[in-house]
Amino acid sequence: MTTAAATPVRRPLVVTALTVLLAVTAIATVAVELLNWWYAPERGFGLAVRTGWALLRSLGFAVLIWHVRRGRVVARPFGLILAVTTVFAVGRLLVPRAGVPPLPGVLGFAALTLLCVAVVGLLYRSLALREVLVRHPNRLVVDRRGIFWRELAPRRPPVAAWLLTVRIAAFTYSPLMLVPCLVAVGTVLDGRLVAVPLVVGWGLTAVVVSQVVLFGTFFLLRGRRWARALLAAGTVAALAVDLPLCWLLLGLDGLVRDGAPLAVAAGITLFGLRRAGRDERPVPAGTGATPRAAEPVR
Asked: Which has the closest alpha carbon to 129: 72, 48, 88?
């Protein structure tokens, strides 16, 4: 077995700057979460679940750094979804059930928000990064010369960058539903056994939604228009199940804390589907206009 020789390439300064920014954002995420936990008046089961989920996002920034340093095209949509959901995941733990949030927590959240805005701005506004983030994942290639592990473009036709954003946003549905579902387990532990069927159904729905998203995005990136309708229907179904159960089992506080992140991810998905469809819409002949070029990604 042989491996393809890789020619060392000097990374642009903007890649190093973004890498440092992402590392600082990951550290800030952990620091703000621990700060919120320290100042929280109630450290119950629900807060522990939400804090644990938010802390896992620091690993997401590590994955994003890995994609950026390798120039992967998926870094831009992944960074957008990670930054937006991180702000909501941390923000929902900042405000207590009663009273005003502590000043250190507010300052930490403001700093984290500015860092996330800087990450998204650099990913989407930097022309130098746009030229770097063009590579595809390495794949195992077998031919007459041997077995090689090298970059290989996927066989599917080019897709708009917005469709990659849709795929990543839709993949967050299941975990965003499972987090409040786990929080609702606390209501069962508190003696509300009548809520057991609702909690079980909630978890099963999250699993079904994940399968629908996996199936829909697979065909979405292969140009099947019916897959867009399937993802839109799955998005509406996820909201129709998650938001009422958040309100019923977790109250208005749970609806704001746990329903808002899913609503944001759903909004990004629906907007991305609409934007990608508009970019690909043919222009009628004789109008003198040229079709708007979508940013193709293989």
From this structure: 72
Query: Whose CA is closest to 19, among 91, 79, 84?
Result: 79
pLDDT at 23 over 90: yes
pLDDT-derived band at 90 (thresholds 50, 70, 90) equals: confident
Backbone angles phi, psi at 159, to 5 degrees: -125, 160
Encoded amino acid at 135, one letter:
R
Question: Where is pLDDT greater, at 179 or 193?
Answer: 179
d(CA 149, CA 146): 10
Q: Please state, in angstroms and rounded to a whole number, the distance separating the CA atoms of residues 191 and 204.
A: 22
pLDDT at 75 over 80: yes
| Residues 81, 87, 90, 96, Cα dihedral to 10° | -130
Q: Which of 126, 122, 121, 50 is nearest to 86 (CA)?
A: 50
CA atoms within 13 A on the CB side of 25: 30
Task: Give the residue from 88, 109, 257, 252 showing the smallest Cα distance to 169.
Answer: 88
- How many residues are present in the chain? 298
List the one residue out of 111, 115, 120 whose CA is nearest residue 81: 120
- Residue 193 predicted with pLDDT over 80: no
| Helices 45-69 + 173-189 axis angle, to 10 | 160
Write down the domain spans for the chain. 12-155, 156-281
Taking only the tens place, the pLDDT of each residue in 144-161 is 665 655 555 555 555 567
